[in-house]
Recover the amino acids of this structure.
């Protein structure tokens, strides 16, 4: 169960619209390494994670990812607020506009709609956590790429915050992986899958 | 809403953001270091601070959480602007 808190995790106050930027940043909403995929990845994987603190970690990070998705949506929303038809045409936002007007739709920067095939829920704790660590790095690279493309400090500031969270999450998932391995046979971590096989009954 | 200004609201939101961030960060850390005394002390200090800041926000500018809604003539929860509208 979840409760909504009526605030952004980190403030987003963008005073100058820029539809070109919005089309790039929307990829962190519905793109391959975006926040929607991140939240659903961790929140799907957590059920079969056999250790309480690691399933708790997946829950807490998955929850934070939803707050990040809201921040990304706030950035895109503020970058496209009150655009005129001329601005929409000039910025190349017309292709998005024709299908979604100024509504928020999860898609990649290239225009591909969000697909759940962006992530896996393998039901094997080592496999899932290694995917999660890679996902955090992929999101970090995406934020680095975004920061190379944009210069507006009002946009860079919340993007830098989000980038930094990827690094913290990567660290925590690494510790989660260590915790999983401590429960396993140090001579062969793959001797059995603790989310499926039972070693003794 | 009393004599509170928009500047007061922004400064209160800033405090709420900082304290809440400290709690999120400590939560993740404690998930993988559940016996860490320093982190436990840190989060236990922050939780009541956040609670009282949320209550103050509810009194002066409307609730940010359902748990801090105060009895009133009007359903304040739905009356305030959504957070993506900016202003903080």
């Amino acid at each position: 169960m979840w409760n909504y808190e009526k605030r952004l995790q980190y403030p987003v106050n963008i005073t100058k619209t820029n539809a070109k930027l919005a089309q790039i940043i929307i990829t962190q909403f519905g793109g391959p390494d975006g926040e929607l995929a991140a939240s659903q990845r961790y929140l799907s994987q957590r059920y079969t994670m056999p250790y309480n603190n690691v399933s708790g970690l997946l829950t807490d990070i998955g929850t934070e990812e939803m707050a990040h998705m809201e921040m990304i949506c706030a950035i895109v929303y503020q970058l496209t607020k009150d655009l005129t038809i001329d601005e929409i045409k000039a910025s190349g936002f017309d292709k998005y506009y024709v299908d979604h007007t100024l509504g928020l739709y999860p898609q990649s920067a290239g225009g591909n709609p969000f697909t759940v095939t962006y992530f896996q829920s393998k039901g094997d704790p080592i496999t899932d956590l290694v995917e999660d660590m890679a996902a955090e790095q992929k999101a970090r690279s995406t934020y680095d790429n975004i920061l190379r493309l944009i210069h507006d400090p009002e946009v860079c500031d919340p993007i830098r915050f989000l980038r930094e969270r990827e690094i913290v999450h990567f660290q925590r998932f690494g510790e989660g992986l260590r915790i999983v391995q401590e429960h396993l046979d140090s001579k062969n971590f793959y001797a059995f899958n603790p989310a499926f096989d039972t070693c003794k009954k | 809403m009393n004599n509170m200004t928009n500047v007061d609201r922004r400064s209160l939101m800033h405090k709420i953001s900082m304290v809440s961030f400290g709690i999120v960060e400590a939560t993740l850390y404690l998930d993988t270091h559940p016996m860490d005394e320093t982190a436990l002390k840190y989060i236990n200090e922050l939780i009541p601070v956040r609670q009282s800041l949320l209550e103050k926000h509810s009194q002066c500018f409307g609730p940010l959480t359902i748990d801090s809604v105060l009895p009133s003539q009007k359903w304040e929860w739905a009356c305030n602007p959504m957070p993506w509208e900016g202003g903080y």
